[in-house]
Specification:
Length: 244
């Protein structure tokens, strides 16, 4: 309820192709910047009895036989061990946590994306759907605009299957792609994106991140430990959203 009271409600995803044709896919969706969403989740966890210990970093599970019975954390130069009946690993798309926990099946991500937030009050009401756009100039990738509350828009460009180029040793490497050039091509070929950027102000920097999609690339559990969120590949490959 707290999330929905602050979020921008959206009823459709608009999928626009290279020649301008589009399909609207209905759904029940809400858009909220991650800083606001994470703060709400943290407060709810604290009300339920959780105790934050930031900026602790997960290093390894503690084992008794084959069962995970706690974690080893690092805070600065010191290590701490915490016992637990269950450990939930929610370390996101970066694979180091999965690797330390023994759950990683694939180190490379499913895709990569570049995202920023733009403030542009003039576009409020004009962009009221989740907008996804494909064009050959985006080098096989896609661009998006998601309307957030208060005249804020989440805008970016991404590429799924970004690390599927085979290497000579049987492994895989990243495609030769420049996300910033892809983002610029999105703004040049999709008129609403160009107008949003020209008339708006970027809030902070554009930031790149890996994506783990379609519940692939990791095992979800071992005795005493569960993986969840993007560590388990929860990002929805259709829109790039991580929470659903």
């Amino acid at each position: 309820d707290e999330v929905l009271s602050q979020a921008q409600h959206v009823s459709h995803v608009r999928c626009t192709g290279p020649r301008g044709g589009h399909i609207d896919v209905p759904g029940t969706m809400a858009v909220l910047p991650r800083l606001q969403l994470d703060a709400i989740l943290l407060r709810a966890a604290e009300r339920a009895g959780a105790r934050p210990c930031m900026p602790a970093r997960f290093e390894a599970p503690l084992l008794q036989g084959d069962r995970v019975q706690g974690v080893r954390l690092r805070v600065g130069d010191s290590q701490h061990e915490l016992a637990a009946r269950w450990v939930v690993l929610a370390t996101g798309a970066v694979p180091q946590g999965l690797m330390a926990a023994g759950l990683c099946d694939r180190r490379t991500p499913s895709g990569i994306a570049l995202r920023g937030y733009v403030k542009n009050d003039a576009m409020v009401g004009r962009i009221d759907k989740l907008e996804i756009f494909w064009h050959r100039r985006l080098a096989g990738g896609y661009g998006w605009i998601f309307p957030a509350p208060g005249g804020l828009f989440n805008i970016g460009a991404g590429l799924t299957g970004s690390h599927e180029v085979e290497r000579g040793d049987g492994g895989f490497r990243m495609q030769d792609v420049n996300l910033r050039q892809m983002f610029d091509a999105f703004c040049a070929t999709y008129a609403p994106a160009g107008e949003l950027m020209r008339g708006g102000s970027l809030q902070g920097d554009l930031k790149g991140a890996p994506l783990r999609c379609s519940l692939g690339g990791a095992r979800w559990s071992r005795p005493g430990l569960l993986a969840t969120g993007e560590a388990a590949g929860s990002t929805y490959a259709f829109t790039g959203e991580g929470i659903g």
